[in-house]
Amino acid sequence: MNIRNIAIIAHVDHGKTTLVDKILHATQVFRENQETGELIMDSNDLERERGITIFSKNISVTYKGVKVNVIDTPGHSDFGGEVERVLKMADGVLLLVDAFEGPMPQTRFVLQKALALGLHPIVVINKVDKPNCRPDEVHDAVFELFFNLDATEEQLNFPTIYGSSKNGWMNTSIAETNNIFPLMDAILEHVPEPKVNEGFLQMQITSLDYSSFLGRIAVGKVARGSIKEGQQIALVQADGGIKKMKIKELYVFEGMGKKKVTEVIAGDICAVVGLENFNIGDTIADAENPEALPTISVDEPTMSMLFGINNSPFFGKEGKFVTSRHLRDRLMKETEKNLALKVEDSDSADSFNVYGRGILHLGILIETMRREGFELTIGQPQVLVKEINGTKHEPYEVLVVDVPAEYSGKVIDLVTQRKGEMLVMETKGEMQHLEFDIPSRGLIGLRSNMLTSTAGEAVMAHRFHEYKPWKGAIPGRNNGVLLSKTTEKTTAYSIDKLQDRGRFFVDPGQDVYAGQIIAEHIKPGDLVVNATEPKKLTNHRASGSDDASKAAPKIQMSLEECMEYIQQDECIEVTPKSIRLRKVILNEDDRKRVSKSMAQTA
Ligand SMILES: Nc1nc2c(ncn2[C@@H]2O[C@H](COP(=O)(O)OP(=O)(O)OP(=O)(O)O)[C@@H](O)[C@H]2O)c(=O)[nH]1
Ligand SMILES: [Mg+2]
Q: In sequence order, which residues have a C-beta less than 8 Å from that of residue 49 and are 6 or more positions away?
């Protein structure tokens, strides 16, 4: 059968998943009554809530008699390693670029990977329905990007499609149509059929799928020969080890689902059920003539966090899984499928060092665990420092900020304070486009400050660039925090009285404990306060009800915001019901003693 394998790649939010949905619609994978209005492809709960793709996904449609396998990829930079791996299944890529934003840091990263693999690109300038969009300028910028990334002559001749995934049209020019078929035609025309290599079976496992009844499923493109149901195969692993096993069931992708088949021939993407203990990167090969494909590089972690059991006074009240044993088993299990994650024992039996690709990568894991019923304590995220030629090096990132011109001064100030250096400043429509080189450390906590100082107008993106020498101290959070003195319920009376001291993270009537962070201090320095005093009863009105407070609503921070907020001596208590900020040392006197001895040794 005639096949095309394409991956859709882009910077976060440039419209990949929306386009995949439109491809499914246009090729009539849905019946009329299956319209849901939501992105069907972002099917995981967390994906829906956040409106981002976390896991790459395969679909397959038939267009003009040709089977088109499409891989939707995540655009967030924390998941860049996953994109790199799934590109191995593709022969061509659709590089989506937002017609206003133009190429962004992740556009560069994914394009570089695709070009290096020799894939055939089609550029899709998406979102041309946006007012103020600049498709021609963006096209030029994309060309320049290809050029800078050493694209071959052939790659530089990329075809360009313009359109709006959201409005369901694509065209070879900017003129609006009412369908996406010009894009489908471009795929058939410009993406080559997969190379079909004759010989003994070779299929590299490039991604994983799960099914509650089938278990772990290995997904990859059959590169050579064919694979059959019931076949004896050799699984060649990264360390060169070979395990003999049998293929239980085979599937190919069809629409949003999979179809059981008895054989898959080189060129098609296939899902294999019944393999044990396989890893991504392993090659499924002929049992008698096992030959491995080149191993896949796994992205190194750039950030670490301490995951510990919940040791707050509220331990065990809201979760099911609370022991270090639970925590350890769960984290180890995660490393089987979450390739960029590493887990190590720490000095303490009750906590583990967890290494990942960034705040979002680790945040998604924590969020998943709390939904499963875990309670845990999370420490401040740390970037991974390396010793290179005897000197201390740290990760640096490219930071891109687009902001209305009136705020650009503030943005530059803010980034410079955090040891960022400006590389580019140019005008982009009505916005100022700024690019910086900044230590990853400086990025932690930057987003919220950036939004505050630009009235929410700044759009920022960053991506790991390289390790460079340590840049010296970077100021942490400006403001101190208010800590609860007592373990009790907060009262509206107390919170009211403390309104001018800080902005609260808790509501009146909420249980808090001594050492818990209940508000951000309006000034630097921490303050221990009593937020649980009952109103002095001057008459017989019931306490609580009468002092309907003038208190400002509490600040709601997402898990990731909390992760970026806390300082070295603070941590986050995560349970299925709550996210609480606290000091690592809850007791006030102990805390003082420790900070005094730290000051002496410093
Ligand atoms: N105006 C406009 N908005 C679009 C278009 N395509 C997508 N969007 C919107 O852009 C947002 C992001 O779309 P997605 O399809 O989720 O983007 P994505 O590239 O899959 O994002 P990640 O998977 O997180 O990298 C959504 O709010 C879409 O409705 C378009 O053509 N025009
Ligand atoms: Mg998506």
A: none
Rounded to the nearest whole angstrom, what is the distance from the C-alpha of residue 17 to the centroid of ligand 1? 7
Half-sphere exposure of 41 (CA within 13 A, CB side): 28
3-state secondary structure 292-356: CCCCCCCCCCCEEEEEECCCCCCCCCCCCECCHHHHHHHHHHHHHHCCCCEEEECCCCCEEEEEE
Q: If you search the block for the tokens 């929410």, which residue do you land on? A: 456
**Would the CB of 10 count as within 6 Å of ligand 1?**
yes
What pTM value is reported for the model?
0.89
Structure-token pair, residue 46: 């967390």
Give the C-alpha separation, 5 to 90, whole Å: 5
Cβ 490 vs Cβ 502: under 8 Å? no
Give the number of the atom of ligand 1 that is nearest the alpha carbon of residue 20. Answer: 15
Per-residue pLDDT tens digits for 385-439 = 999 999 999 999 999 999 999 999 999 999 999 999 999 999 887 889 999 999 9
Sign of CA dihedral 356, 358, 361, 366: positive
Would you mind telling me the total number of residues written for the chain in this entry? 602
CA 1, 271, 78, 133 dihedral sign is positive
Retrieve residue 240's tokens.
């060169």
In the chain, DSSP finds a helix count (H) and a strand count (E) of 15, 36
- Does the C-beta of 164 come closer than 6 Å to ligand 1? yes
> DSSP character for 255?
B
CB of 74 shorter than 6 A to ligand 1 = yes
Ligand 1 centroid to Cα of residue 377, in Å, is: 34
Quote the ligand 1 centre to 21 CA distance (angstroms).
11
Q: How far is the CA of 18 from the centre of ligand 1 (A)?
A: 6
Residue 388 host element (H or E): strand 386-388
Whose atoms come closest to the Cα of 19: which ligand?
1
Q: What is the pLDDT of residues 6-37, one digit of tens each?
A: 999 999 999 999 999 999 989 876 655 555 55
Residue 539: its pLDDT value, please? 57
Q: CB 433: neighbour CB atoms within 10 A?
A: 18
For ligand 1, the distance from its centroid to the CA atom of residue 122, given in whole angstroms, is 18
Q: Is 127 in the pocket of ligand 1 (CB under 6 A)?
A: yes
Whole-angstrom CA distances from 418 to 58, 104, 463 are 40, 22, 16
Neighbours of ion ligand 2 (CB under 5 A): 16-17, 53
Task: Give the position, in ligand 1's atom list, of the atom nearest the Cα of 163.
Answer: 31
Atom of ligand 1 at shortest distance to CA of 164?
A: 31
Phi and psi, residue 149, nearest 5°: -95, 15
R_g over Cα of the chain: 27
Contact in structure between 354 and 331 (CB atoms under 8 Å): yes
